[in-house]
Write a structure and sequence with these properties.
eight-stranded mixed sheet; 18 strands; alpha+beta; Fumarylacetoacetate hydrolase, domain 2
């Protein structure tokens, strides 16, 4: 293939306990999927159909890395999330078969330029500038279903410099993982390599340069991110 310039490497994540890498195709994110977080964002925690936004695959940051405080924001937020890794393609997947399409699970942190996101929301514009910027998707190693099953309960927790900021249970999700996968597959075909960040609990807040952010989920370990100075 005669490319005009060398293609960029395929974004990927480690598979826990192996030397394999999971190639990432797309990153879907579910908005307001915990009731208390919906309330803190000024919205009703109802069961209207879930909505999705996306991040580019090359926004991935692995565990243990430093993320520079991003440009064009003065309100840089953390969001602890369960991440679903798709392993089998499918469209119009019934809810009772959705789990068959999942390869594994990981811990995630949906980094957000909150001021830009809220400005877009208030004017009815897309959230891309607030959500889909460089190095905005911190995601840990993927744990295969064969090792961890399908976690539908267990603590999800985030600390900043050792202080707990978010603490909830996966059972608190408004839309469960099978429901999310099924609904998404009715809009477009999901394929191996797709990731779904399933939403964050209440307690979101700002980070400053020098902060150390740790996200953990029972059975899936933890991820650590340090916030560095603006590039």
């Amino acid at each position: 293939m005669n490319y005009c310039f060398p293609p960029l490497p395929i974004p990927s994540l480690p598979v826990a306990g192996t030397n394999a890498r999971f190639p990432v195709r797309r990153i879907f994110c579910v908005g307001r999927n915990y009731a208390e977080h919906a309330r803190e964002m000024g919205k009703d925690p109802d069961r209207d159909p879930p909505f999705f936004f996306t991040k580019p695959a090359d926004a991935i940051v692995e565990d243990g890395q430093t993320v520079a405080y991003p440009p064009e924001t003065k309100n840089f937020h953390y969001e602890a999330e369960l991440v679903v890794a798709i392993g089998n393609a499918g469209s119009d997947i019934p809810e009772d078969r959705a789990l068959d399409h999942i390869f594994g699970y990981a811990v995630g942190n949906d980094l957000t330029r909150r001021d830009l996101q809220l400005a877009a929301r208030e004017t009815g514009r897309p959230w891309d500038w607030g959500k889909a910027f460089d190095r905005s998707a911190v995601i840990g190693p993927i744990y295969p279903v064969a090792e961890v099953g399908h976690p539908d309960h267990g603590a999800i927790r985030l600390t900043i410099n050792g202080t707990v900021r978010q603490h909830a249970d996966l059972a608190d999700l408004i839309w469960s993982v099978p429901e999310i996968v099924s609904i998404l597959s009715h809009s477009m075909e999901i394929r191996p390599g797709d990731l779904v960040m399933t939403g964050t609990p209440a307690g979101v807040g700002a980070m400053q340069v020098g902060d150390v952010c740790v996200v953990s989920i029972d059975g899936l370990g933890q991820i650590v991110t340090t916030i560095g100075p603006r590039a």
